[in-house]
Amino acid sequence: MATKKTTRKKTAAKKTAPKRKKASPKRARRTAKATRKKPPKGGKGGRPRIEIDWDTVARLLRVGNTNEDIAAILEISIATLQARFAEHPEKVEAARATRRSNLRTRQTANALAGSDRMLIHLGEHELGQRRKLQLSGEPGQPPVAFTVAEFVQLGAARQKQRLAIEAESSDDGE
């Protein structure tokens, strides 16, 4: 009997690199630091700083623009604008205070010129007056309830009537 010879083919063993362990967090940080590019000498590096024109910002704040409007006009992000505001809060507050002062001056001028609504507004906000019912009426008659606004308008109407009567009497007397 003939014997069969079995031959095994020798397979070439694949050479694989040994598995590396994961780097420890400390090592990962050291490696990341080492691979960062160093900033150029004499500067911090990174993106150039966006400077804003504070005269333009102050003018826009004085007329009452919002942060979103100002950022859009200056063509910068709202975050950049807020960062600059945080760096110079005194400039921002000064511009806003100027706006409030100008508004109060105009409101007072309108009130003194005879604007009933402005008188009511300033009375409520500056003097702490409230829109509550005020009772008025002649003795012996039932009281009549008015709001502050109606009371002021009634007084203005009575004053106009008095002025008209005075003007007629002065015309008749001549």
Task: Give an overview of the whole structure.
The structure is a single chain. The protein has 7 helices and 2 strands; from the N terminus they run ααααααββα. With 174 residues, the chain is mainly α. Among the domains are: 51-113; 130-174. It has a two-stranded antiparallel ribbon with strand order 1-2. A hairpin with a 7-residue loop joins β1 (134-136) and β2 (144-146).
Protein traits:
7 helices, mainly alpha, 57% helix, 174 residues, two-stranded antiparallel sheet
Biggest sheet layout: 2 strands, antiparallel
Characterize the overall form. Answer: elongated
Note the quaternary state here.
single chain
Percentage of residues assigned to helices: 55-70%
Topology:
Elements lengths: L24 H11 L18 H9 L4 H8 L3 H10 L1 H24 L3 H11 L7 E3 L7 E3 L1 H26 L1
Antiparallel strand pairs: 1-2
Helix pairs in contact: 2-5, 3-4, 5-6
